[in-house]
Structures are given as structure tokens and as C-alpha cells.
Prior knowledge:
By secondary structure, the protein is α/β, with parallel strands linked by helices. The chain is 39% helix and 19% strand. It contains 14 helices and 20 strands. It has helices at 4-16, 23-39, 41-52, 56-82, 119-130, 144-155, 170-177, 190-201, 225-237, 257-272, 288-297, 348-356, 371-380, 416-421, and strands spanning 85-87, 96-104, 107-111, 134-138, 163-165, 183-187, 207-210, 216-219, 249-253, 302-305, 309-310, 315-316, 319-322, 339-345, 363-367, 385-388, 409-410, 423-431, 439-441, 449-451. It has a 7-stranded mixed β-sheet. Strand 6 (183-187), helix 8 and strand 7 (207-210) form a beta-alpha-beta unit. Helix 3 (41-52) runs antiparallel to helix 6 (144-155). The radius of gyration is 25 Å and the shape is globular.
Amino acid sequence: MENYExxxxxxxxxFKTGVTKPIQYRMDSLNTLKEAILTNEKEILAALRKDxxxxxxxxxxxxxxxxxxxxxYSLENLKAWMEPKNVExxxxxxxxxxxxxxxxxxxxLIIAPWNYPFQLAVSPLVGAIAGGNxxxxxxxxxxxxxxxxxxxxxxxxxxxEYIAVVEGEVETSTALLKEKFDYxxxxxxxxxxxxxxxxxxxxxxxxxxxxxxxxxxxxxNDADLDTAAKRIARGKFLNAGQTCVAPDYLLIHxxxxxxxxxxxxxxxxxxxxxxxxxxxxFPKIINEKQFNRLRAFLDNGNPYxxxxxxxxxxxxxxxxxxxISWNDPVMxxxxxxxxxxxIVYDDLNEIIEEITNRPKPLxxxxxxxxxxxxxxxxxxxxxGGGCINETLAHLTSPYLPFGGVxxxxxxxxxxxxxxxxxxxxxxxxxxxAEKNCGYRExxxxxxxxxxxxxxxxx
Length: 458
């Protein structure tokens, strides 16, 4: 096992030279990363096919394209982000100005998950580079082909003392977390997120935790059902449902349930064909453990659609489970697979109560044409981010910070939020030097003081 203490020390030494801070070095590094992705595009897509059976179209759009857009957006805006920001100074502090200086944290540790093994590893790295940091990247051990190409791509283009990739099992992550880093960025489950946060607390290291949770999707009785069916099918079954912001369960108004489920069935066939088991591009479940966990949920409720499995291929057909209750096992944990439980409601208040009594979700989706309904749900339900009359799309926008709240995570990234995440904003007050400038005690406060020449309040 590599000496991770030595690796962290070499990166801290490299960072202290100041070479990573100038804008030109950051932009050159982002361009180098972009060129490395383009050069290795075929190998990345082949690795995603091997690890998750992702088609080239899905692999490119959901993994490579999003990272390239992050890089391009950072290159276009980095100069403005790095500029010191002049802000107001209180009137009682005379002859002074106030400035906020963005500065890199130093050495960042990025721990990535397996479900989008390229995007969720490299996208945070874009923020770390833009912020002027060094970085150690730990890709998932469950996607070895993608982890291998990431290692090759980084090692061929960057010195290890600047950006390093460390592969390995869970013991590797544990060993890395024992070292002192200046920032930790973790994407994964809530349970592991707690372990990461505990390890970070030993060094008082700031963290971003991109976690998950059960993300509700509401279809009200005034929704455009054709649009809702197509967008929910696409959002739920992308990557075989192994998406942290996938609609986890469906809340459907009783008046439109039967009509909507029929349209949803048609939408699934439109995406994947009449016999999905014969579709060579439908992604597989990542491993046997997750396959068995998901297969156990198929006994819940009544299957309205799907339900076929093939253990030899780790295949689970897109499945709709009807007649589900809030107490069923499938409703007790994040599904993270191609299974959609359906719960019927008559009154919005009853489902708002159920949602808000549970951990705050990472995502929240509402299909309704009523602004009153939309506003009511947005004002009463706390969640990381979401969409009205769409699914997933909010996380693709560089203008919208992406992250969770409560048990679904803390901190955010994408676009400027990625730069801000990996940047400390240092506040500085500048004041002109004056003869006899000093402090004097405030008679009224006793312990307090005011700057010389400022009136005390008696």
C-alpha cells in the first residue's frame, strides 16, 4: 500500500510553491483535462459499457458531455470568479474599504461513487482545479474499468504532486481519510457520508457531502399526463434507476392514476422497446449484492408492469409496483434501481405530511399546471433541488447549485458553486493610516471598543 501520508505531504509542498494559484495555470490545467477527455473518449465509453453496460449515447450524454460543459463554463467565467470583490463598509468605520479575496483551500480529497463513475469523479475535480487546489481522487472500486481509464488519463497529463488518482477497496478510502486534507468532497450513501464526516472532524476539515435519499415525484390531477409519463420514465430508468436524483417513488392523484400508469407503460416501451430483456443497451445493476437487494423489493405490492429479472446478467426490468403503502419495505430506504412504487392520494396535505415527516430528500419533482399547487409544495417541502414538470434537468445547469439538505447532504457544486466550494473567501478590511489612530473603551459596553474618532453611545 502506498504511503498516503507521503503523497499528501508532497501535494502540500507543491501547493505551497504557489504554482497552482495563477489564473493561467488553472486555465491551462482545465484545457489539459478537456483535451485528455477528448483524447480518451472511446476508452471512457468502453469502460462505462464494461462496468455498467451503458450505451455510447447514454455514456456520452450523462457522463462525458456534462463534464466537458463544466470545463467550458469554468474557462469562460474563471477570470471573473477569481477577481477580489469590493463590498460595502459600515459608515462607522471611516476611511476604510472592504474586499473579499477568493483563495484555494490547498489539498483536496475527492471520493467518487460507482453509479456515474466518470462524471461524479471528474466534475468535482474541475472545481478543485478552477479553485487553484491540488487534489487526490479516489474513484470507485466497483467500476474498475472506468477507474483504470481515469487513472491513466490523469497520470499521463498531470504530475502526482498536483493531481493524483488512488485506486483500491474500502480500506484505501479509510486510509486516505486518516490523512490531513484541506477539503474533502464525498459523493455516496448517507451511511458512508457519516463515516467521512466523522473522519474529517478529527482534523476539523471542511466537507461537501453529496448523498441521496428517497426523492418524491408528484403527479397532480391537473398535470399534462403525456409529458409527465415521458419525463418520469426517462428520469427514473436512466442508468437502470441507479441515479441519486431519480424519482424514487410516485405519488399520483387518484383521479388520474389509471390513465397515467397506462401512459407511463407506453413511455417505457417507447424508450426501451417491447421486450426490454432483449435490449442490449439497458444498463445492468452494478453487482450481485445490489441485485439481490433490489429483487427483494419486487414482492412488495402488486406488479403493474415489468418485474422480470436475470441474475446471470444482473438485469432487472423497469418495474412499476402498484398498491404500495408507506410501511412497505420498498418505502424504507432509497431504491437506487429500476423499481417505481406508486402511492395514491386524494389530498395534497396528506402527502405533504408524509414527506415532511421523513428525511429531507435530495430531489423533488412536481407535475402540475397550477401555480398555486406548485407554490404550495415548494413552500412546504424542504429538499436539495428539483424540477417542476421535469425530472433530473436541474442538475445539468451550471447556473443552479446542486446539493442536498439534511440527511441528503451538505454543500453544493456545479458552475460557480464548484469554484466556491473549493475556495475560501477571505475577508479583508483596509483602512488608511492616521496619526494617533487607535482604540478607546466604550463607556457603555465596558468590554467593547470603537475605532478612534467614532462616537461612543452612552
